[in-house]
Amino acid sequence: MEIEHLEIRDYLAQCPPMDTLDPETLDKLIQSIEISYARRGTPIIDVGDRCRFAYLIRTGAVEILNADGELHGHYSEGEWIGVRCLLRDRIAQRSLKAMEDCLLYLVPADVFLQLLNDHVGLLRFFSPHKPDRLREAMDQMRNQSNATLISTQVEDYVKTDPLILAPDTSIQQAAVQMHAQNTTALLVAQQQRLTGIVTEREFCTKVVAQGMDVSQPVASIMTPNPFTIDPHKSGAEAMLLMARKNIRHVPVVENGQIKGLITATDLLKHQSHNAVFIVHSVHKAKSLEKLQTLSKELPATLVELVNSSLTAYDIGHAISAIGEAITVRLLKMAEEIYGPPPVPYAWILAGSLSRNEQTAHSDQDNALILADSYHAPDHGDYFERLAQFVSDGLNACGYDYCPGNVMASNPQWRQPLAQWQRYFDAWINTPEPKALMYTSIFFDLRCAYGDATLLGTLQRQISKTAPDNSIFLAYMAANALQFHPPLGLFRKFVLEKGGAEEKALNFKKRGVTPVIDLARVYALACGSRALSTQDRLEDAADKGVLHPDSMADLRDAFEFISTVRLQHQARQIENNQTPDNFVSPEQLSSLERRHLKDAFEVVRTLQEAMKSRFHAGNLG
Regarding beta strands 257-263 and 496-498, do their DSSP bridges make them parallel or antiparallel, or are they unpaired? Predict the structure, then answer.
């Protein structure tokens, strides 16, 4: 192969989507490629010309003009042009013109179309439909990883010969057999059907601590109906299940049959910073200093999860599990210090933690719902001290005080249930734009600790009154349109100052927030109690207020934007920088730039649809 061809091959081998081709196909492609140079200002294709090539811009920049001469878009190094013409009738409906001196690689039409016919991934990459292109991009990003947890299955880790005992086996016999087999857990089954699990913890907390009669059946100390996992699920999914539920042993079951047992220790061999062990250690922590030490592992854990190519949805759940565990442990510490609560209460999470969408450390958003038996002169001091202790503890662990003071330490957000009901009645039935702008966060609420029925009562009120109030939904939709994706005319990125970058894309305010706000509106419109953005979109589609195709497009766009954001933060952490949400376009690959534009356009289109559906543009 000639030196010139070798250089082209090297470039294509790292240029999406040709980087997915096998070496033999790539070698054949190189033999057909032509090289062309275009001086600045010269035409490449004119309207009406027959398209004979797909063009890859090696260096320089090209502008596309409509038939009337208006600018349609700009394209630069690493981007393909002329493809749509080939996929239609091969007659150019727009003209291509060199904005700078350009070096172009030309792939003959027949060769290019045959490649697309032979490789479905290439066909999806060049699809005229943005959602198809986004899904192909996500597949490529996932497939680039060699991470063990995402690429292996539970059956690769499972212990296929766990200790299985009948329910009527005595506690003493169970202990003897656990000791003999040197195992930390046993499964309880009746005719090979799983009925429960017993771990070493049950022997400590139930048998020894409560002085139980060891002749009783082991079924009396088991955890019934334990969480299980299919052997064909990934190792990452097993890790996430353990982290979310704070468990370290999961029975492996397929079609109702026990296949084995997987433990957190099995997974730890493949991750140095494991969310399961952090959550477990948090629940055992005896001091604030220990919690601070554990919280410092969160950035490295985020990097590990990102490098494992987990979805942004799963990463958010894993990182949020750590934040929630720290919150719950602080509440238990507060009760140990100040005594049991004088009346029932529910500690409520708001914001990204409530939605299970936390990334790196963020500010805290929380509130307290107190039982209506609360009497301020008698009980106020207790809950004020409890709330301040938890808020200060979270701040010490890296969860900064909320700039808007949306915290239980603020008396406004530490109220009896009846007052919370009055709050929501006013927000929904007599909405005010400014008030809703600051209180929309309270439509993302989840009980982390305490009496969950208090929040349940409030949620029933919201799901009953919000869907039928068109004025409220119109105001919520208008608020959700505050931030638009950072895409201007001709698909150019809109940059702003922030972070370490002088001008950058704001991936929080203009990336994920528009989708989060949109999903919240649709969830309120259908009475959904789902909280995560993805779950809300799926629920809205299931209940008929969002078209299934729109849901899928928006879900994929949100996942792609979130993934690029997480990868940016992981790189910053690895470089000993403070993670932020500001990404310079120069830091993005050509694939990321291309598909981010697709994702932002999907969001912008769905924002317009929401504006029309809820009449958000008709408010005075």
Answer: unpaired
With residues binned 3-state (H G I as helix, E B as strand, rest as coil), the percentages for the chain, rounded to 5, are 55, 15, 30
Q: What percent of the chain has pLDDT over 90?
A: 57
The residues, any chain, with a CB within 8 Å of residue 313's CB and separated by 6 or more, are 532, 534, 559, 562
Pairing type for strands 257-263 and 185-190 reads unpaired
List the beta strands (DSSP E) in 265-373.
Answer: 345-349, 366-370
Per the CB < 8 A criterion, the answer to whether 185 and 263 are in contact is: yes
User: DSSP string spanning 97-166?
Assistant: EESS-EEEEEEEHHHHHHHHHH-HHHHHHT-SSHHHHHHHHHHHHHHT---HHHHSBGGGT-BSS--EE-
Q: Roughly what angle, to the nearest 10 degrees, separates helices 275-284 and 298-307?
A: 160
Helix locations, 430-504, DSSP H: 433-439, 452-465, 470-480
Task: List CB contacts of 270: < 8 A, sequence separation 6 or more.
Answer: 148, 149, 152, 235
Name the DSSP class of 296. Answer: T
Residue corresponding to tokens 């060049």: 126
Residues belonging to the chain: 620
Q: Which residue has the tokens 């209506």?
A: 372
Task: With beta carbons less than 8 A apart as the criterion, state whether 272 and 239 touch.
Answer: no
Return the structure tokens found at 124: 């999806």
Distance CA 590, CA 587 (A): 10
What are the pLDDT digits (tens) for 477-496? 999 999 999 987 666 788 88
Integer Cα distance of 591 and 138 in angstroms: 10
What pTM does this model have? Answer: 0.77
DSSP 503: E
Contact present, 157 and 266 (Cβ < 8 Å)? yes
What DSSP designation does 527 have? T
DSSP, res 285: -
Bridge pairing between strands 501-506 and 496-498: antiparallel
Q: Encode pLDDT of 21-41 as tens digits.
A: 888 899 899 889 999 999 999
Closest by Cα among 254, 247, 257, 263 to 189 = 257
Q: What's the rounded Cα separation, in Å, for the pair 228 and 126?
A: 41
Residue 492 is given by DSSP the state: P
Burial class (CB in 10 A: 0-12, 13-18, 19+), 482: exposed
Tokens matching residue 466: 């919000």
**Tokens standing for residue 65:** 């003009």
User: Which residues share a beta bridge with 416?
Assistant: 370
Q: Please give the average per-residue pLDDT across 490-505, as a whole number.
A: 76
Domains and their CATH numbers in the chain: 3-128 (2.60.120.10), 153-239+249-268 (3.10.580.10), 275-465 (3.30.460.10), 478-618 (1.20.120)
Find out whether 347 and 368 touch, Cβ atoms under 8 Å: yes
Distance (Å, rounded) from C-alpha 19 to C-alpha 216? 63
Cβ-proximal residues to 77 (8 Å cutoff; 6+ apart), any chain: 57, 58, 59, 60, 61, 590
Pairing of strands 414-416, 366-370: parallel
Arithmetic mean of pLDDT, 567-574:
93
Q: What is the DSSP letter of 409?
A: T
